[in-house]
Specification:
single chain; alpha/beta; TIM Barrel; 12 strands; about 35% helix
């Protein structure tokens, strides 16, 4: 397996409190000095690129909360070897930043939005900010961030009604974007997988009852574990990421760099490598590069399947 993707969490701060990521009563933010500095992120990504990483995605928390996010994008966009730079955001602050991010070198964007109904959106995220997100989606399309992908986690009892799912899928009918339905996965002590889980087979059946049979398509860049389809005559596409009802671990080519400087070969394992200590203890580029090469080798030979045995916080690891 060729390990070429790195997800970089640039902050664990977020302006939302989504029930599956960072609940309303969990405010476990790290001290500022624990978070990687811009220069540290650049150095780590540069050394990763020398080890074969080609795709970088910035995540959070909410990455657009970093005051230096545009500068960070600009610096990362010119790192030798990096062929694709993207970002995952909740979209609340995307409208005023989209043009700057595009000019700085950002290629594409994923936007987390779990409902197109304001009341449900507020119930899931804790805040009534859906109109700002919709404006951010349209602005991202207007400035040429492509493809725009919407990430929607379907939760039983929250946004799993036929009306809710059809409304999300319907965004792909008239807009040139991809709506990706992501199976709910347990992430921390607040989540209850058995009661909240909706298989993507159920989601697809709802979509097909509304819009007719979906037909399979092959997407270009940034495919990852998703399977893609189209509603007939639609401008966009539908994707399914089925992390519970199927297993794709053996084909996973992603590493994660947490906001406090740990490299995780697998999202569902507690195993992590502290790269921040290497950086701050004055290790040379060669020493750090050798360390990263060993991590990549470990990832390439990793055999764990997505059994969801570990407890983790998505706001600290990144999506």
């Amino acid at each position: 397996m060729n390990v070429e993707c790195l997800r970089v969490s640039v902050t664990n701060k977020c302006n939302l409190r989504c029930v599956y990521c960072h609940p309303l009563d969990d405010y476990g933010l790290m001290e500022r000095q624990e978070i990687l500095k811009l220069e540290e992120i650049l150095r780590i990504v540069t050394l990763f690129a020398e080890c074969g990483i080609r795709k970088v995605r910035l995540t959070g928390g909410e990455p657009l909360l970093r005051s230096d996010i545009v500068r960070l994008v600009r610096e990362l966009a010119v790192v030798a070897g990096i062929k694709e730079l993207s970002i995952t955001t909740n979209g609340v602050f995307l409208k005023p930043l989209a043009a700057e991010l595009k000019a700085a070198g950002l290629r594409r964007v994923n936007i987390s939005v779990d409902s197109m109904e304001r009341r449900t959106y507020k119930r899931i995220t804790g805040f009534d900010l859906l109109p700002a997100v919709v404006e951010g989606i349209r602005k991202a399309i207007d400035v040429g961030l492509a493809p725009v992908k919407l990430n929607s986690v379907i939760i039983k009892g929250a946004n799993d009604s036929e009306k809710q799912i059809a409304a999300l899928a319907g965004m792909s009918v008239h807009l040139p974007l991809t709506v990706r339905f992501i199976e709910y996965c347990p992430t921390n002590k607040y989540t209850k997988p058995a009661s909240h889980y909706v298989p993507n087979g159920v989601v697809r059946a709802i979509i097909e009852r509304k819009y007719g049979p979906l037909y399979s398509i092959v997407m270009g860049q940034g495919n990852g574990p998703a399977l893609y389809f189209k509603i007939r005559d639609s401008a966009g596409a539908i994707g399914f990421i089925s992390g519970r009802s199927s297993t794709f671990c053996r084909s996973c080519s992603r590493l994660r760099l947490t906001s406090d400087g740990k490299v995780m070969p697998c999202l569902y394992s507690a195993r992590a490598h502290d790269i921040k200590t290497f950086i701050r203890n004055g290790q040379s580029d060669r020493q750090i590069r050798d360390f990263l090469s060993r991590i990549i080798s470990e990832k390439a030979n990793y055999t764990k399947s997505n059994s969801f045995e570990e407890e983790f916080s998505m706001c600290k690891i990144g999506g």
